[in-house]
Amino acid sequence: MGIRAGCAGTAAAAVILAGLPAEEARAANGAYAVDAADIGEAGSCKVESWLSSASNTDFTAVANPSCVVNPFQPVELSTLTSRARSDGEWSNAIQPKAKTNIVPTGIGKLGFSIYAGGSFDALTGEHRSAFAVIPATYRLSDTMRININGGWLWDRSVDSHYLTYGIGFDWKFTDTLQWTIEAFGQAGQSDTPSVVQPRFQTGVRYRPNEIFSVDLIYGRNISGENANWITLGTTIRFPVPGGKPEHHRTGHL
After folding, report:
1. What three-state secondary structure class fits 11?
2. What is the pLDDT along the chain (253 residues), one digit of tens a residue?
3. What is the DSSP string of 86-146?
4. 156 to 81, 119, 121: CA distances (angstroms)
5. Are strands 45-54 and 144-155 parallel, antiparallel or unpaired?
6. d(C-alpha 109, C-alpha 103), whole Å
7. Closest by CA position to 38, among listed 7, 71, 68
8. CB 96 within 8 A of CB 120
9. Judging by beta carbons within 10 Å of its beta carbon (0-12, 13-18, 19+), is residue 206 exposed, middle or buried?
10. Integer Rg of the chain from CA
């Protein structure tokens, strides 16, 4: 009952906010930026959260609840909320997103999905941007996969359109540990060179049980500010009762 209520609440929030543009697209993979093509089982929910601190004193705190519903096919609905400090200025944002799988992934097989969403300033109501991304995943084995993302971002604050890209590699090297390395960014015109320079992250995920996992990540230029970042993230999952655990279905944590 609690899981269904959580799914309904997240779904309702995402529907209400669905038409609002976003500042920056984030993946459905916690604090990592490059998304995989998989989504969870219909009826499952999770809450991702992370704290990121940069060498230039920028800071971000994020909570991202999501649930998978099945109106016609499984769709993951999420509503990311963030509190951030950049150049000494604080901001609050809300970012709804919907994602659905188009072609399932498999070993030696390319699968892909699509997600889209937007965000706005939670205090002023200002629309920030909109985005759409196609994540693709190629599974090399039960424990290794390559993720490739391509998409579009509209930054309303400067009325600029960007092509977004990302490539990542996941390796589950023990039953409880997974290593991820990824490069990503956006291509287009900007008065700030670091905004269109490549961005980088690498980190380790520890998942001791079906419910909980924690990530420790190092990043470079992850929000286009040319700084070094350390991120600590957690995920709490609410699986479908009697369902198959996510990492048993996909082979990854």
Report:
1. helix
2. 344 444 444 333 333 333 333 345 555 578 999 999 999 999 999 999 999 999 999 999 999 999 999 999 999 999 999 999 998 889 999 999 999 999 999 999 999 999 999 998 888 878 888 999 999 999 999 999 999 999 999 998 888 999 999 999 999 999 999 999 999 999 999 888 999 999 999 999 999 998 999 999 999 999 889 999 999 999 999 999 887 766 666 667 7
3. ETTEEEEEEEEEEEEEEE--BBTBEEEEEEEEEEEETTT--EEEEEEEEEEEEESSSSEEE
4. 19, 10, 12
5. unpaired
6. 10
7. 68
8. no
9. middle
10. 17
* Lookup result for tokens 């991304």: 133
113-129 as b/e, with b when 16 or more CB fall inside 10 Å? bebbbbbbbeeeeebbb
DSSP secondary structure code for residue 239 in this structure: P
| Three-state secondary structure call for residue 39 | coil
Quick check: 107 and 139 in contact, CB under 8 A?
yes
The residue written with tokens 């023990």 in the block is 174
Q: What is the DSSP-derived secondary structure letter of residue 33?
A: S
Relative to beta strand 75-86, strand 160-172 is: unpaired
- Tell me the residue type at 28: A
